[in-house]
Amino acid sequence: xxxxxxxxxxxxxxxxxxxxxxxxxxxxxxxxxxxxxxxxxxxxxxxxxxxxxxxxxxxxxxxxxxxxxxxxxxxxxxxxxxxxxxxxxxxxxxxxxxxxxxxxxxxxxxxxxxxxxxxxxxxxxxxxxxxxxxxxxxxxxxxxxxxxxxxxxxxxxxxxxxxxxxxxxxxxxxxxxxxxxxxxxxxxxxxxxxxxxxxxxxxxxxxxxxxxxxxxxxxxxxxxxx
Length: 226
Prior knowledge:
mainly alpha
């Protein structure tokens, strides 16, 4: 972690020397890191598409073996293995983002100073924009439940607000740039690797309806039982 943090800190220092302005250096640094991490972003996009592609089968499994959690888990694992889906892969971009943040904190001058009051607000706003965009257009996040979407949004906005309050304005500015560029990158990935080419959304909706029928039937039976 320390080596990676120092590596990204070296890149930021290079950007600062190239631009001669710390603010433009942060913008350039954020852009470079997005390029460097693009292969990971592409893998994550493809992995997320695999997950949503499996949703119809997963929903039918849940409907078929409703109430049997062990059997559902077993069948779901078999589907993951069949499609070569890696559940932990989606966590890698978040982990790398935190590692990069370590490098930014090390490299930005005055990182021990608190940012002005407007920075936390802008950081939280950038996170809000990113989460709203992801909830609507991210291939995996858009299919999550409302509770999951709201939970992710609240966590991201709260984290950004926290960072904006307790870090320097340079670090907060990096976080703002990162959130906004991540949003732009998501739309570009959706264009280049369009989920609609791989996912049968009609089958997905049909499987959701089938699962809801089973859930309602089960709830009705439980309600009638003495």
